[in-house]
Amino acid sequence: MQFSNWQEFLAMGGYAPFVWSAFALTLITLGIVLVIPVRRERQLRRQLQRLERLHEQENSQ
Amino acid sequence: MTSARRRRLFMVMSVVFASGVAVALTTYALRQHINLFFAPSQVLAGEAPVDRVIRVGGLVVPGSISRDQETLQVSFEIADNIAAIRVSYSGILPDLFREGQGIVARGTLGPDYHIQAQEVLARHDEEYMPPEVADALKRTSMAHDGY
Amino acid sequence: MSQTATSAQRRKRFKPPLWVYKLASPAYFDHLAGRIIPWLLFPGLVLLSIGLVWGLAFAPADYQQGDSFRIIYVHVPTAALSMAIYMAMAITAAISLIWRMRLAAIISRNCAPIGAACTFLALATGSLWGKPMWGTWWVWDARLTSELILLFLYLGYMALHDAFEDPEVGSRAASILALVGVINIPIIHYSVEWWHTLHQGATLFKFAKPSIDPSMLWPLLVMLLAFALLSAANVLMRSRNDVLERRLQPDDD
Question: How many domains are contained in chain A?
Answer without folding.
Answer: 1
